Amino acid sequence: MKNLAAFLPRNFLHLTGVRTKLRSGDFFDLALRNRLREQDISFPDDGTASLKLAVLPMLMNIHFSARMAGDYNFSKSLLVTDKIAGTVTAAMGFCNGNCYIVC
Q: Which among 16, 52, 54, 94 is least buried, having the fewest CB atoms inside 10 angstroms?
């Protein structure tokens, strides 16, 4: 069986790094319909949202841009993932379920 990857609407909010009181599915739907308002989101003080947003276009094409892929070695304590794929600029983690899901 081939390994498949799923990019689910509930994962998109995490990929942006922004904060919101919206549920992740609602955030995705509003973003897709170009209906997010400035007051719907905020940026955390740690700067991670800016870093994530800078590489988000590349990550949305990870299936074309990845130069490295493999098992995650648990070298970062806050990253929970099974597989990792990416480049030296950015990487995306995947968790194993029925298929690999972006996390």
A: 54
